[in-house]
Amino acid sequence: MELPTSWQNLCSVVTTIALLILAPPVAQTVCAQSQVLGTSREEAEIRGATLDFYIALNRALQGDLDPLNAVWSHRPDVSNLSAVGGRSVGWTEVHANFPYMVRLYPGGRIVPRDIMVVPGRDMGYSVCTETGRLRSAEGPMVIFNQRATNIFRLEEGKWKLIHHHADSNSTDSSGTTDGSYR
Fold first, then answer.
1. Following CA atoms 66, 67, 68, 74 in sequence, which dihedral angle do they give, to the nearest 10 degrees?
2. Where are the alpha helices (DSSP H) in the chain?
3. How far apart are CA 157 and CA 172, in angstroms?
4. Please, is 142 exposed, middle or buried when counting C-beta atoms within 10 Å of its C-beta (0-12, 13-18, 19+)?
5. Which CATH code fits 41-172?
6. What are the boundaries of each domain within the chain?
7. Averaged pLDDT for residues 173-181
8. Is 89 helix (H, G, I), strand (E, B) or coil?
9. Cβ atoms of 152 and 49 closer than 8 Å
10. Model pLDDT, residue 80
11. Which residue among 6, 55, 132, 182 is least crowded, i.e. fewest CB within 10 A of its CB?
Protein backbone atom coordinates (compact mmCIF):
# COMPACT_ATOMS: atom_id res chain seq x y z
CA MET A 1 0.00 0.00 0.00
CA GLU A 2 1.37 3.35 -1.04
CA LEU A 3 1.13 6.44 1.22
CA PRO A 4 -0.67 9.50 -0.12
CA THR A 5 1.56 12.25 -1.48
CA SER A 6 0.80 14.55 1.47
CA TRP A 7 2.09 11.90 3.91
CA GLN A 8 5.21 11.35 1.80
CA ASN A 9 5.88 15.10 1.85
CA LEU A 10 5.32 15.24 5.62
CA CYS A 11 7.72 12.31 6.16
CA SER A 12 10.33 14.03 4.01
CA VAL A 13 10.01 17.27 5.98
CA VAL A 14 10.24 15.47 9.35
CA THR A 15 13.28 13.49 8.18
CA THR A 16 14.99 16.65 6.93
CA ILE A 17 14.32 18.50 10.21
CA ALA A 18 15.59 15.54 12.25
CA LEU A 19 18.79 15.41 10.19
CA LEU A 20 19.36 19.15 10.59
CA ILE A 21 18.88 18.90 14.35
CA LEU A 22 21.10 15.84 14.77
CA ALA A 23 23.82 16.73 12.27
CA PRO A 24 25.83 19.21 14.40
CA PRO A 25 26.14 16.90 17.46
CA VAL A 26 27.01 13.96 15.24
CA ALA A 27 29.60 16.03 13.36
CA GLN A 28 31.11 17.25 16.65
CA THR A 29 31.31 13.68 17.95
CA VAL A 30 33.00 12.49 14.76
CA CYS A 31 35.50 15.39 14.90
CA ALA A 32 36.25 14.72 18.58
CA GLN A 33 36.75 11.02 17.88
CA SER A 34 39.05 11.73 14.94
CA GLN A 35 41.18 14.02 17.12
CA VAL A 36 41.42 11.34 19.81
CA LEU A 37 42.38 8.80 17.17
CA GLY A 38 45.03 11.19 15.83
CA THR A 39 43.44 12.03 12.53
CA SER A 40 42.96 15.77 12.90
CA ARG A 41 43.22 17.95 9.83
CA GLU A 42 46.46 19.49 11.16
CA GLU A 43 47.99 16.07 11.75
CA ALA A 44 47.12 14.93 8.24
CA GLU A 45 48.57 18.13 6.78
CA ILE A 46 51.82 17.87 8.76
CA ARG A 47 52.14 14.20 7.80
CA GLY A 48 51.65 15.27 4.17
CA ALA A 49 54.26 18.03 4.55
CA THR A 50 56.67 15.47 6.02
CA LEU A 51 56.17 13.13 3.07
CA ASP A 52 56.53 16.06 0.66
CA PHE A 53 59.86 16.91 2.31
CA TYR A 54 61.23 13.39 1.75
CA ILE A 55 59.99 13.33 -1.83
CA ALA A 56 61.73 16.68 -2.38
CA LEU A 57 64.88 15.45 -0.62
CA ASN A 58 65.07 12.42 -2.90
CA ARG A 59 64.52 14.59 -5.97
CA ALA A 60 67.39 16.79 -4.76
CA LEU A 61 69.65 13.74 -4.45
CA GLN A 62 68.89 13.13 -8.13
CA GLY A 63 69.89 16.71 -8.96
CA ASP A 64 66.50 18.54 -8.95
CA LEU A 65 66.61 21.16 -6.15
CA ASP A 66 63.35 22.96 -7.01
CA PRO A 67 61.04 20.74 -4.90
CA LEU A 68 63.36 21.07 -1.90
CA ASN A 69 63.34 24.86 -2.27
CA ALA A 70 59.53 24.74 -2.31
CA VAL A 71 59.02 22.79 0.95
CA TRP A 72 61.31 24.97 3.10
CA SER A 73 60.38 28.29 4.63
CA HIS A 74 62.62 31.03 3.25
CA ARG A 75 62.71 33.01 6.49
CA PRO A 76 65.89 33.84 8.46
CA ASP A 77 64.93 31.64 11.45
CA VAL A 78 65.11 28.26 9.65
CA SER A 79 67.80 25.77 10.60
CA ASN A 80 69.23 22.41 9.58
CA LEU A 81 71.31 20.06 11.72
CA SER A 82 72.84 17.37 9.53
CA ALA A 83 73.64 13.84 10.69
CA VAL A 84 77.19 14.29 9.39
CA GLY A 85 77.67 17.37 11.51
CA GLY A 86 77.33 21.02 10.92
CA ARG A 87 74.61 23.51 11.50
CA SER A 88 73.00 25.86 9.01
CA VAL A 89 70.96 28.81 10.24
CA GLY A 90 68.84 31.07 8.05
CA TRP A 91 67.45 30.36 4.62
CA THR A 92 70.57 31.62 2.84
CA GLU A 93 72.82 29.15 4.72
CA VAL A 94 70.36 26.24 4.56
CA HIS A 95 69.83 26.76 0.83
CA ALA A 96 73.57 27.11 0.16
CA ASN A 97 74.12 23.56 1.48
CA PHE A 98 71.71 21.88 -0.96
CA PRO A 99 74.19 21.67 -3.89
CA TYR A 100 76.86 20.39 -1.48
CA MET A 101 74.50 17.61 -0.35
CA VAL A 102 73.86 16.62 -3.98
CA ARG A 103 77.60 16.39 -4.67
CA LEU A 104 78.27 14.50 -1.43
CA TYR A 105 75.51 11.88 -1.90
CA PRO A 106 74.82 11.46 -5.62
CA GLY A 107 72.02 9.03 -6.41
CA GLY A 108 71.08 8.41 -2.78
CA ARG A 109 67.66 7.55 -1.43
CA ILE A 110 66.13 8.41 1.96
CA VAL A 111 62.79 7.04 3.18
CA PRO A 112 60.94 8.04 6.37
CA ARG A 113 59.68 5.18 8.54
CA ASP A 114 57.55 5.13 11.70
CA ILE A 115 56.41 8.74 11.31
CA MET A 116 54.88 10.25 14.45
CA VAL A 117 53.18 13.63 14.10
CA VAL A 118 52.43 16.18 16.80
CA PRO A 119 50.10 18.81 15.37
CA GLY A 120 49.47 22.35 16.48
CA ARG A 121 47.38 25.19 15.15
CA ASP A 122 50.21 26.96 13.30
CA MET A 123 53.26 24.85 14.20
CA GLY A 124 53.81 21.14 14.45
CA TYR A 125 56.48 18.52 14.11
CA SER A 126 57.16 15.00 12.98
CA VAL A 127 59.73 12.51 14.16
CA CYS A 128 60.72 9.46 12.19
CA THR A 129 63.49 7.08 11.31
CA GLU A 130 65.24 7.89 8.05
CA THR A 131 66.48 4.80 6.26
CA GLY A 132 68.20 4.48 2.98
CA ARG A 133 71.36 4.26 0.96
CA LEU A 134 73.79 7.03 0.20
CA ARG A 135 76.88 6.90 -1.98
CA SER A 136 79.62 9.23 -1.02
CA ALA A 137 81.48 10.85 -3.92
CA GLU A 138 84.64 9.20 -2.53
CA GLY A 139 83.35 5.90 -1.21
CA PRO A 140 81.05 2.92 -1.26
CA MET A 141 77.28 2.81 -0.83
CA VAL A 142 76.32 3.22 2.82
CA ILE A 143 73.12 1.78 4.27
CA PHE A 144 71.85 3.81 7.21
CA ASN A 145 69.14 4.20 9.79
CA GLN A 146 68.96 7.52 11.63
CA ARG A 147 66.54 9.47 13.76
CA ALA A 148 65.06 12.69 12.39
CA THR A 149 62.92 15.57 13.58
CA ASN A 150 61.12 17.94 11.21
CA ILE A 151 59.44 21.13 12.48
CA PHE A 152 56.84 22.89 10.35
CA ARG A 153 55.17 26.29 10.51
CA LEU A 154 51.96 27.30 8.78
CA GLU A 155 52.86 30.13 6.37
CA GLU A 156 50.21 31.62 4.12
CA GLY A 157 48.10 28.46 4.35
CA LYS A 158 50.96 26.00 3.66
CA TRP A 159 53.06 23.96 6.07
CA LYS A 160 56.70 24.92 5.52
CA LEU A 161 59.74 23.17 6.99
CA ILE A 162 61.57 25.43 9.44
CA HIS A 163 63.93 22.90 11.04
CA HIS A 164 65.33 19.49 10.15
CA HIS A 165 67.58 17.51 12.47
CA ALA A 166 68.97 14.10 11.58
CA ASP A 167 70.88 12.23 14.26
CA SER A 168 73.08 9.38 13.16
CA ASN A 169 72.64 6.21 15.18
CA SER A 170 75.91 4.28 14.95
CA THR A 171 74.38 0.96 16.02
CA ASP A 172 72.06 0.91 12.98
CA SER A 173 74.47 2.04 10.25
CA SER A 174 76.68 -0.02 8.05
CA GLY A 175 79.47 0.87 5.69
CA THR A 176 81.56 2.73 8.27
CA THR A 177 82.56 1.85 11.80
CA ASP A 178 81.56 5.14 13.41
CA GLY A 179 78.08 5.48 11.87
CA SER A 180 79.08 8.49 9.78
CA TYR A 181 78.47 8.79 6.07
CA ARG A 182 81.82 10.26 5.05
1. 80
2. 5-36, 41-61, 66-71, 91-96, 98-104
3. 38
4. buried
5. 3.10.450.50
6. 1-37, 41-172
7. 37
8. strand
9. yes
10. 96
11. 6
Give the sign of the dihedral formed by CA 53, CA 58, CA 61, CA 67: negative
What Rg value do the Cα atoms of the chain yield, rounded?
A: 24
How far is the C-alpha of 57 from the C-alpha of 51, rounded, in Å?
10
Q: Do 12 and 18 meet the contact criterion of CB atoms below 8 Å apart? A: no
Between 27 and 4, where is the model more confident? 4
Q: Which DSSP letter does residue 179 get?
A: S
Over range 75-86, report the average pLDDT.
89
Residue 31 confidence (pLDDT): 41
Residues in the chain: 182
131 pLDDT above the threshold of 50 = yes
DSSP string for residues in 123-164:
EEEEEEEEEEEEE-SSS-EEEEEEEEEEEEEEETTEEEEEEE
pTM score, whole prediction: 0.71
DSSP state of 120: -
How confident is residue 135, by pLDDT bands cut at 50, 70 and 90?
confident
